[in-house]
Amino acid sequence: MKLEIRTPDKSVFTGEVSLVQLPGIDGLFEILEHHAALVAALQKGRVKIQDKENNTQFFDINGGVAEVLHDSILVLAE
Questions:
Q1: Domain residues of the chain, as ranges?
Q2: What is the 3-state secondary structure (H, E, C) of the chain?
């Protein structure tokens, strides 16, 4: 699935991933391929990204919004 993480200044990450873990306002949640459509508010925390080869990356955010639609995830982060 495609992931894009944007801040007001720049695009932080764009690429294909197999798993994304996000800091929702009610706690951590994960998004896998074929996830249902979703819009979620995010709190300050760490975004975990796992690619198709099981390599893991982390990005710190100060809150934002995530949208999942048709195997595409857009994170608008502060």
A1: 2-77
A2: CEEEEECCCCEEEEEECCEEEEEECCEEEEEECCCCCEEEEEEEEEEEEECCCCCEEEEEEEEEEEEECCCEEEEEEC
Give the class (CATH, top level) of 2-77.
mainly beta
- Position 30 scores a pLDDT of 96
Cβ count near 51 (within 10 Å): 14
Per-residue pLDDT reduced to its tens digit, 24-52: 999 999 999 999 999 999 999 999 999 98
